[in-house]
Amino acid sequence: TLNLKYSYKYLSFEAYLFSKSEWAENKAEFLNKADMEHLKDSVSVLNELEGQLDNAYHKTNTNFNQGKNPYLKLDRNKKPIVSTPADEQKPKECIISDLLPSERYFSLQQILHQVNDSTEFLDNFEHFSIKGQRGRPEDNTFLAIIMALGCNIGIRKISRISKGISADTLENTRTWYFTIESLNNANAQIISAINQLSLPRLYLTKDGEIHTSSDGQKFGVKPESLNSNYSFKYFGKERGVSVYTFLDQRSSIFSTNVINSSSRESTFVLDGLCFSNEVVSTMHSTDTHGYTEVIFGMMDLLNINFAPRIKNVGDQTLYSFEKIKSYEKEDYQILPDKYIRTDMINEHWDDILRIMASIKLQKCTASQILKRLNSYSKQNPLHKALKEYGRILKSIFILHYLDDLDLRKAIEKQLNLIEHAHRFARFVFFDNGQEYDEPTKEGQEIIAGCKQLIQNCIILWNYMKLTQIYYNCSSAEERKRIIAAIKSSSIISWSHVNMNGEYDFNRDVIFGEELNLEKLKKVKILEMS
Fold it and tell me: Using CA atoms, how far apart are residues 517 and 508, in angstroms rounded to an integer?
């Protein structure tokens, strides 16, 4: 409940939004810019949702009563239990290594160079205070820093194990050229290049629709950090953070955010979706940690279909506009538990629109709004109204989830994809015990941005290499085989990438001063006595 005048994190709630006077004067303009004009009348919005919810109850119960949904059952307390059978043919995780030449590996440095030659993503790194290219370091310097941070090797270490670069040059370049904004722009340029290729479209199930997902991954932090905390489950007696990552169906990693590992992930779900111009999500999935009833409501107002995987979904409270008795008369087995309080939603509708317009027009971040709403000792009435609205969307989704096997499979597939991306992240971030050696949140996000950039570069390189292989095929049958193989696997493949450099076993290599065991055995350690 504490407000601080000069701290963005602890301003009063109203300070983050368009002011009430500004909203009253420019409401029509704000709604038009945010593409929210159709939401201005709460009564018509609620009437439409009432029809959708009633149809969802009817369809789910009718299919269940007629035996059309064999994967839905009721327990002894008449709570729904739903199962999702696995696909008979489980897709391979990695097919690219089968299509690439098996006798060689491709170095990370080579991959980054080739991707930069095609996209020029390094042009996004500009001097913090001096604009223009005068005195700009060489591309190899930027790539060395990206590898040093993104692979967790460290600036000093990579300068010692590399030739042609100095630690001072690397440190200076990192200080003046590497910002969160430059890394976001570089990643956006890589994703834009992915979107321009035809091959990634094989992973889209419907034209004009993009299914995205997000999930957190825990990493330890060595130094004392205000952005980290203790968690015995994940870090033992040490501290750590959570890197919250966003991924689309084409495997583009379009956003990362380093958050305190004790923070609720749902608070940050909207940030990655609202601030990405390259990936416009139409459906978004998370696990249970990314879900709240408020998020359901806010997602709907942003025109995104929220489809989380909720643990023990049958125990969730269902809501309705209609009286429960009217559904019991229809012999429905899946019934609502409580009613929607439409009066509360109507009362605060104008402020709800003001919040969503402020978020969508990037006046503020959704995470900051949710943090302030959650900080009140007594639940804020506006927060209650958002939650009440979200209960409508949650009930509609759960009824569809119970009834639609294809929806459940799509959610599982997308969440499995981001779990695969987490293993990919561990492969990239391989050195120094996979722990952050940076205390500040900004420094941690720069490291996460470099790791994200390396991942996206490998993904784009995979797409380009497979497109080249497809183009060079001489027969139509071979092309069909390649397309079938790609569609049944994940583009997130790294078995062909050499992250660890090369070793030189030539006889003339000098390894430093010779160590003589017989001579050293004669040395007496005086302190032993």
Answer: 22
Tokens of 348: 């605060």
Which pTM does this prediction carry? 0.92
Pair 87, 409: CB distance under 8 Å: yes
Q: Which residues of 358-372 are buried (b: 16+ CB within 10 A; e: fewer)?
A: bbbeeebbbbbbbbb
- pLDDT tens digit at each of 529 positions of the chain: 678 888 888 888 889 999 999 999 999 999 999 999 999 999 999 999 999 999 999 999 999 999 999 999 999 888 999 999 887 554 454 467 778 766 678 999 999 999 999 999 999 999 987 766 567 899 999 999 999 999 999 999 999 998 888 999 999 999 999 999 999 999 999 999 999 999 999 999 888 899 999 999 999 999 999 888 988 888 888 999 999 999 999 999 999 999 998 888 999 999 999 888 899 999 999 999 999 999 999 999 999 999 999 999 999 999 999 888 889 898 999 999 999 999 999 999 999 999 999 999 999 999 999 988 887 767 789 999 999 999 999 999 999 999 999 999 999 999 999 999 999 999 999 999 999 999 999 999 999 999 999 999 999 999 999 999 999 988 898 898 889 888 888 899 998 999 988 887 776 666 667 788 888 888 888 776 5
Tokens of 4: 């601080």
Joined tokens for residue 292: 């709240």
At position 250, the amino acid (one-letter code) is: R
Q: How many CB atoms lie within 10 A of CB 29?
A: 10
- The candidate with the shortest Cα–Cα distance to 109, out of 145, 147, 153, is 147
Distances (CA, A) of 464 to 94, 114, 159, 399, 478: 16, 10, 31, 41, 18
Contacts of 380 (CB under 8 A, 6+ apart): 13, 373
Only one residue has tokens 């038009």, namely: 32
Q: Among residues 161, 103, 155, 111, which one has the least CA distance to residue 504?
A: 161
Please report which helix (H) or strand (E) contains residue 255, including its range: strand 253-260
344: exposed, middle or buried (Cβ count in 10 Å: 0-12, 13-18, 19+): middle
How does strand 253-260 pair with strand 497-498? Answer: unpaired
**Rounded-to-integer distance, Cα 390 and Cα 397, Å:** 11
C-alpha of 13 from chain center: 26
268's CB contacts (< 8 A; 6+ apart) are: 244, 257, 259, 367
Element (H, E) at 230: strand 229-230
Answer for the pair 468, 73: CB distance below 8 angstroms, yes or no.
Answer: no
Q: Give CA 382 to chain center in angstroms.
A: 28
Segment (H or E) for 257? strand 253-260
Looking at the chain, how many residues does it have?
Answer: 529
Give dist(CA 501, CA 312) in Å, integer: 47
